[in-house]
Amino acid sequence: MNGNTGTGQARERPTTKATVLKGLVMLVVTLVILGAILFGSAGRVDWVMAWVFIGVLMACVIVNIVVLMKTNPDVIQERMSRPKDVKRWDIVLSSILGVFVMAALPLAGLDERFGWSPPIAPALHVAGLALFVIGDLLFLWTMAVNKFCSKLVCIQKERGHHVVTSGPYRYIRHPGYVGWSILVAGIPLILGSLWTFIPVGVAICLTVVRTVLEDNTLKEELDGYEEYARRVRYKLVPGVW
Question: Which CATH number fits domain 16-231: 3.30.70.580, 1.20.120.1630, 3.40.50.720, 3.50.50.60?
Fold first, then answer.
């Protein structure tokens, strides 16, 4: 889930149908696990917003697969593959980042069970859903134009890795990270847990750190990126940074 990077090895790729089927199976398994975490920590299954969260997540993933099948099927296989030759710092950083995101779910469930956060207005739940969908759409746009969009940071010379300048890359250098950050920022509001902003906030801060490290890597190792960075000045927020 990075800007202009892809995985760095030549490998035999599975057929698109097999990859999509694998992805759908993984989606079902993931939803079951998320449901177990949320409802188990909440101590009940009649938690409406948890069901809404799971439903929206499922819908977003399915829409992503359908769109990418038509626009950039190669990126589906890329993101489903197990990367090699990645930067070691990214393996550590992305793992820590993932722990904080996953920690938000049982924390939200416990918050729902014990009522640590005050009830929030329905409009805030809707705002959280809007953030989640907007973030996913930006991330989808990123994947649709960048066949090198991978889960971990490395340079993929074997596939002719080059700088991507179309789509959202015309405005910012790391739109995938922006989309992901907006998406996860909506989770506390969807689930109605203010305490969940703590692990989510840490995860977003770690994403900023990851952006800086990846940007430096691209400047050093990807041909043409230095010149691209001079033209597109902002990493994450147009006009700011």
Answer: 1.20.120.1630
